[in-house]
Design goal:
Elements lengths: L15 E3 L5 H10 L8 E4 L21 H7 L5 E4 L7 E4 L9 E5 L4 E2 L3 E5 L2 E6 L1 E2 L3 E4 L2 E6 L2 E2 L2 E4 L5 E3 L2 E3 L6 E4 L6 E3 L2 E3 L16 E5 L1 H4 L3 E3 L2 E2 L10 E5 L2 E3 L2 H7 L9 E2 L51 E3 L5 E6 L3 E3 L3 E9 L11 E5 L7 E3 L3 E5 L4 E10 L6 E2 L4 E6 L9 E4 L14 E5 L9 E7 L7 E3 L5 E4 L4 E11 L4 E10 L4 E13 L13 E5 L17 E9 L5 E7 L10 E3 L5 E8 L5 E6 L5 E12 L4 E12 L11 E5 L12 E9 L7 E5 L18 E8 L5 E6 L5 E11 L4 E13 L12 E5 L6 E11 L5 E7 L10 E3 L5 E8 L6 E5 L5 E12 L5
Parallel strand pairs: 2-3, 3-5, 4-7, 5-8, 6-9, 7-10, 8-11, 10-13, 11-14, 12-15, 13-16, 14-17, 15-18, 16-19, 17-20, 18-21, 19-22, 21-24, 27-34
Antiparallel strand pairs: 1-25, 22-23, 26-28, 28-31, 29-30, 29-32, 32-33, 32-34, 35-36, 36-39, 37-38, 37-40, 40-41, 42-49, 43-48, 44-47, 44-49, 45-46, 45-48, 50-56, 51-55, 52-54, 52-56, 53-55, 57-64, 58-63, 59-62, 59-64, 60-61, 60-63
Length: 882
């Protein structure tokens, strides 16, 4: 016994079965006549059969077209079997059976719809079963049974001995069941009645509070009723009437039972109409009386495990014409092999929902369509085997029925690819990952995309293993989808793809891949501070310790609007408060630390340099101080991004301003310098590459260079000192008025600005970063230490480079001097890049044009000095130049 239930009424829309097995009388008749298609005890009606005829014999080969014709031809003991469909404007039954040998009019499973009424007049011993009519009217008749029929009203007039069992009467404007005149000795059991409400015209019934079951005084004699569910139309102003029995209204089954000495009302439920929408709260399911007169068992009685069994007999037949079946709201078919060569036996498995465990009484029928033109297979098993005999892609599906006449076809079939037999051959495309200008998600700077979809096999590939050849763990997948990997360092690698199919076979293919940075465009930025170790006690910059810093981009917090997919960052790096002479190296996190340096600083002093460095693992760059301790300040100047940003145009270096020809910058003074339209810089230039030099400085100070009309940034570009000429390269946005501003913080100093190139939307070259490469070191090898008025030729720059980004360092300097870097073969300009100090090491970031032979010249003015030149990247034409 299951838990008790709350009251409610079975709603429309359930998975149901309408129709049942023959009564005892008709069973005996069928046994006499046999069960073949043309058995003499069965007359068939099928209006949709082209061979139907109302003058026919009612056989399966030549059925009647109308119910009326078949009923008129029926003899006592015969059954008129009506195929499912709509049959005219109504049915009139005028012939009678005999006691024990009734004429039965039976609809097909699911109920046969009749366009109008079913009328029985002056007949006896007739059974109407599993029909669906507007109204059933019985007049002047006797021993008529109406069972498992749906109608909007059932009325008998002067028809004693009528039996109304397991009917559903709903949505009419009259009494649901009415026994009028003298219809005594009748039986009303297991009916569901809910009239006085028309769904086609809501609230339009003239008497919404009319009674649902009406029995006249004469009909009440010897009439019995029970196990009915009545749902009167209850309104806000009053309640409907469940019963009028012998002229007396009764609002409850208990009142009716008391007035009839228990002949009526027992085991009835009266429920408000507003509860009728909930099947789970229904007082219909699993509560029918199987001992009721005229009871016809359902073809598939179903035991709902969520409902208590309150009926007799099996205990779980339902009231009304329909039998609630297990609801099937989903059906899906899967295959153990969705790709296999023809001749392979495929196992297909059907699953249904929403229940995880089926009802114990459910009779599940599965109809399998394999999609290849072979006959469908019907089975009670959710598993079926099939062998496809030809190549192709076939869509197999399943239709599941619980016996309710409302089968559910799977919304999700299964595609089976049937192939020709053949070998397994691994195949893949291996490509560099280069985001286009519209990509917003971050791609790895040194990315590779491996697409193994070129693999061929007649079987499904169940395992794909990709080894990227860099020592990282291989990636295993169960599909042929492409995978993306980011290498930590540029270099040559071997990508190995190993595939396994469901036949257990394995194939391997290897592909060489060169991981290299893609050409990029420049994204200018308003300079902002990334790191200041003076403000963070947790950052301790000491000799030999790697200290990484994160560079937020894309959607990361602190990205400052920097988009994703940037591969390289341009920084201004300042080292101060050094405890001893030392140098700082900056490189991409995750790569081997290069032998190059970026900033050289003397004990107790401050030194700055521009640094262009690729972004490494986890969006980080690493720094390492060679020795001692120091503080570092890192300011972001800009970024490089593939397929985005502005292009670079190198210029023959030229001088924009030299305050020695006018006046020093005073303390707190900002001076505007015109750049657009000067020295080859066009009006559409967005940023310029300048070399900033200070000289004749009165006191320690710092200089800031920023866009004309812009806000003065926190970051500085150069830290001048008295008695020293100092230089640093800067990349600075051009203001709307074509100027840049130079600000001096303290004291006075002369300033020199030389231009080396510009960025613009219509520029000429993209930038490709490299792992730092040492091009020249005059301290070692065959190089001689450059003397006064000497030129050192530096090669090794990649072919086709229009310009190069170098870090040039002077050391072992004998006297103050300067270095000028320019394209090999071009006239030496009247500018400088480094200002040398005797006995000190001085670096500077240099962006310089490159000669046609891929070389640059480095000129030393006086004295002698060792020169170190490291390559950090180069510019090549973005498109063929005319």
């Amino acid at each position: 016994m299951r838990p008790n239930r709350t009251k409610g009424l079975l709603a429309a829309g359930l998975v149901t079965v309408l129709g049942g097995i023959p009564t005892a009388a008709t069973t005996a008749s069928a046994a006499t006549t046999g069960s073949a298609d043309d058995a003499p005890g069965v007359l068939r009606v099928d209006a949709w059969d082209p061979a139907c005829s109302d003058s026919g014999t009612g056989t399966a080969a030549k059925p009647f077209c109308s119910v009326n014709a078949a009923a008129a031809a029926a003899l006592p003991g015969q059954t008129v079997e009506v195929a499912r469909g709509t049959f005219g404007s109504g049915t009139a039954v005028t012939k009678s059976g005999e006691p024990g040998r009734p004429i039965t009019i039976r609809g097909a499973a699911g109920g046969t719809a009749v366009g109008g009424d079913v009328r029985l007049s002056g007949v006896h011993d007739v059974v109407v079963e599993s029909m669906h009519a507007r109204e059933v009217l019985v007049t002047g008749s006797s021993r008529v049974t109406v069972v498992r029929t749906e109608a909007s009203g059932i009325k008998t007039v002067d028809s004693p001995g009528t039996t109304l069992t397991n009917n559903t009467v709903a949505d009419g404007c009259t009494a649901g069941i009415e026994l009028a005149g003298d219809s005594s000795g009748s039986n009303l059991f297991n009916n569901v009645v809910r009239n006085h409400f028309s769904p086609s015209a809501p609230y339009s019934c003239p008497n919404p509070e009319g009674a649902e079951i009406v029995v006249s005084a004469a009909s009440a004699k010897d009439t019995r009723a029970g196990s009915n569910t009545v749902a009167p139309y209850w309104t806000n102003s009053g309640n409907g009437t469940p019963y009028v029995w012998a002229g007396t209204r009764h609002q409850t089954p208990e009142s009716l039972a008391a007035a009839t000495d228990g002949r009526a009302g027992k085991h009835d439920y009266v429920v408000p109409r507003w509860q009728s929408g909930s099947a789970l709260n229904s007082e219909v399911v699993d509560s029918a009386d199987e001992t009721a007169p005229g009871f016809v068992p359902a073809a598939h009685p179903a035991d709902d495990p969520s409902r208590p069994n309150l009926g007799t007999g099996l205990g779980y037949h339902d009231r009304g014409a329909t039998e609630r079946q297990e609801p099937i709201t989903s059906a899906q078919l899967t295959a153990d092999q969705q790709r296999a060569p023809y001749g392979t036996e495929i196992t297909l498995t059907a699953t249904t929902g929403p229940e995880k465990a089926h009802w114990p009484t459910s009779v599940m029928t599965y109809r399998y369509d394999f999609g290849d033109g072979t006959p469908a297979v019907t089975s009670n098993s959710p598993v079926v085997k099939h062998t496809y005999t030809k190549p192709g892609t076939f869509s197999a599906n399943v239709t599941v029925d619980t016996g309710g006449g409302q089968p559910f076809t799977g919304g999700y079939g299964v595609q089976v690819q049937v192939t020709a037999p053949g070998p397994l051959t691994a195949g893949a495309t291996v490509q560099q990952v280069v985001p286009d200008r519209f990509d917003t998600a971050d791609a790895p700077p040194l990315g590779v995309r491996v697409d193994p979809s070129g693999t061929s096999s007649p079987w499904h590939v169940s395992k794909v293993v990709v080894d990227y050849g860099d020592g990282t763990p291989a990636v295993t997948r169960n599909t042929l989808d492409a995978v993306v990997h980011g290498y930590a360092s540029p270099g040559d690698y071997t990508v190995t793809v190993t595939v396994t199919d469901t036949a257990g076979r394995t194939s391997t293919a290897a592909y060489p891949f060169r991981a290299a940075y893609a050409p990029t465009g420049f994204l200018r930025a308003e300079a902002y501070r990334l790191v200041d170790t003076r403000q963070d006690p947790n950052l301790d910059l000491r000799g030999g310790a790697e200290v990484p810093f994160t560079v937020p981009t894309g959607s990361a917090p602190g990205a400052n609007g920097v988009p994703g997919n940037v591969t390289t960052v341009v920084l201004n790096v300042t080292v101060t408060d050094a405890t001893e002479d030392t140098h700082l190296t900056v490189w991409p996190t995750g790569q081997a630390r290069p032998i190059t340096s970026n900033v050289n600083v003397a004990a107790g002093r401050t030194s700055s340099n521009l640094v262009t460095v690729p972004i490494g693992d986890a969006k980080r760059i690493s720094t390492l101080l060679n020795s001692g301790r120091a503080e570092v300040i890192v300011d972001v100047v800009g970024f490089y991004r593939p397929n985005g940003g502005d292009l670079f145009t190198p210029l023959a270096p030229s001088r924009l301003v030299d305050t020695r020809e006018s006046s020093k910058l005073g303390s707190g003074e900002t001076r505007a310098v015109k750049v657009a339209g000067v020295g080859g810089v066009p009006a559409d230039a967005t940023s310029v590459v300048l070399n900033l030099t200070s000289t004749d400085t009165a006191t320690d100070t710092h200089l800031k260079v920023y866009a004309g009309g812009g806000t003065k940034p926190v970051s500085s570009n150069l830290n001048p000192e008295p008695g020293k000429d100092k230089a640093n390269q800067v990349i600075v946005p051009v203001g709307p008025d074509g100027t840049v501003n130079v600000y001096n913080h303290n004291g006075s100093t002369h300033v020199i600005l030389d231009v080396f190139g510009y960025y613009s939307p219509n520029g000429k070259a993209t930038y490709t970063p490299t792992v730092p490469v040492r091009l020249t070191d005059t301290r070692t090898g065959p190089f001689a230490k450059p003397g006064p008025d000497s030129t050192t030729v530096v090669g090794g720059i990649p072919a086709g480079a229009r310009a190069a980004v170098l870090n040039v360092t002077s050391t072992n300097t004998t006297e103050d001097s300067y270095l000028t870097v320019h394209a090999h073969g071009a006239p030496r300009p009247g500018t400088s890049n480094l200002n040398l100090l005797a006995g000190q090491t001085v670096p500077n970031h240099v962006t310089t044009p490159v000669g046609a032979d891929g070389k640059v010249d480095i000129y030393n003015h006086v004295g002698s000095t060792d020169i170190i030149a490291d390559l950090f990247g180069y510019f090549t034409d973005a498109w063929p130049q005319s």
